[in-house]
């Protein structure tokens, strides 16, 4: 596999590569405008057309620095960034509230983020609420019928990926030839913390994808729907995937999408086979006692 | 089997996940689902040659409080820090999903179903988030839990109880934040980045993780209660937590929506007022914020007895 120039830190470039030329209007989503340039500068939100259709774009700016919250740089999602992203999602829902399912705008999340703001002020004020707010907003938009596709172009790391990516209906990723990083923690750090030799973990990575870093392992876990080996492939793949997701939603196949759908995909691809067994077991056990917990009439 | 009566006065902080699960619901009402007798263990820990737990470190099941069916998820910090892997994550996800499905079944079957007969979910957090031994599967399970929490909105209230040793951190800090109501004891801790990680990232001058008072000032129950991140603060007994859950369980789901800190555009706006305050204050310590909330004896707030704290504390509002 021939290595390509990395897209890391180039979220804004990726927007230009993906949307219709000159169509991206930053800081406007539906009725909401984000006028303060100092508010959540690490988050890029706006509206573009993609194949002629109105689409909300949410990305990280790897070159921005948040003066008010200095832990935010290099694409880190801080408190303001998380809430700003949530606002962009809510504005998308509101703008299309009265439209039929097939006309609800898609949301494209361009993913290149190394983490969530790890600071004292962040903990005092509750950073966990900011990212959770964004995740709930995305889940709400997804369940209300908006197609949400994440496009991983660089770093999709741990909690930041949970926040910006893993609530999507479907996740696409540039392949490993772009140096794409998807993981919770590099194996070297995992090795140190769980006190296992690196060689052991590296060996296990080849047998079981749950330990390892990289888009291919996430693919076999169902975490990534499809891999793209060329930046020129992002735009057509997104257009196609949005159409597929919209069709699935129109047919009521919501359960094949999003985090729950990725569970089934992980079993199908052999990466997460324990999950369906325990779910089936629980369902069987609950069915046997459910009547005891129903109201007495 | 642990005696329910004996459990009630016991310290919640010291209680095991199973004791918490049994003790949080009515006496004798708890049925464990996918319990230790099923012996479903993590295949990934086994591959590493590590010890496994027959419940994978999480107790899931259903009990009852009065007329309310209560689905319980209880994490065990003594097993790999309560971390979430493929099995434990799936148990958590499926418990919430089962509660939603049960709700829908009951609503369809009983047209006269009352609010107190509708199921609720209680999650007793004790975890730092993803289990690194099976990190990718754990991460994906977190996303599934968040999805179920949103699916539960408007149907099944989800109550977080936090008062165990490990607290609720990492990705599970998001999950706790996304529940409807949060009950903490003063020994509970809630956040995103655990103290050791902040120290590692920011340096010991910024955050000394071995300073327990600092850790509690920043993420502990009293602080979270002042900030409004915890809706209720209770004594450190199983009974105190159970009574608070029992008070909430029969309420209509709209009441729970009102308790949420996040989950709507209006709530996000309110949180942004807090963030603006953070930017303006640049607090060096949580005590600065307690003073801002109007507490005259801010520096002493952590030390006053619980009852005095509850009767005198002023909570932050913006």
Descriptive overview:
Chain B: This is Malonate decarboxylase beta subunit. Chain B: Keywords: Transferase. Chain B: InterPro entries: AcCoA_carboxyl_beta, ClpP/crotonase-like_dom_sf, COA_CT_N, Malonate_beta. Chain B: GO terms for molecular function: acetyl-CoA carboxylase activity; carboxy-lyase activity; transferase activity. Chain B: Residues 1-257 form the CoA carboxyltransferase N-terminal domain. Chain A: One of its GO terms (molecular function) is ligase activity. By secondary structure, chain A is α/β, with parallel strands linked by helices. Chain A has a single domain (11-272), classed as 2-enoyl-CoA Hydratase, Chain A, domain 1 (Alpha-Beta Complex). In chain A, 42% of the residues lie in helices and 17% in strands. In chain A, the strands form two sheets. In chain A, strands 1, 4, 5, 6, 7, 8, 9 and 10 form an eight-stranded mixed beta sheet that branches. In chain A, helix 2 packs parallel to helix 4 (127-143). The longest helix of chain A is centred in the C-terminal third of the chain and has 20 residues, at 274-293. Chain A is globular. The relative contact order of chain A is 0.12. The mean pLDDT of chain A is 95. Chain B has 318 residues and is α/β, with parallel strands linked by helices. Chain B has a domain at 4-190 and 229-262: 2-enoyl-CoA Hydratase, Chain A, domain 1. Chain B has 14 helices and seven strands. Chain B has helices spanning 4-7, 17-23, 43-47, 86-109, 135-152, 171-177, 195-202, 212-219, 221-227, 238-248, 253-259, 265-281, 286-292, 306-312; strands at residues 31-32, 58-65, 68-75, 120-125, 158-162, 181-185, 232-234. Chain B is globular. Chain B starts with a helix and ends in a 6-residue tail after the last helix. The mean pLDDT of chain B is 96. At the A-B interface, helix 2, helix 3, helix 4, helix 5 and helix 6 of A face helix 3, strand 2, helix 4, helix 5 and helix 6 of B.
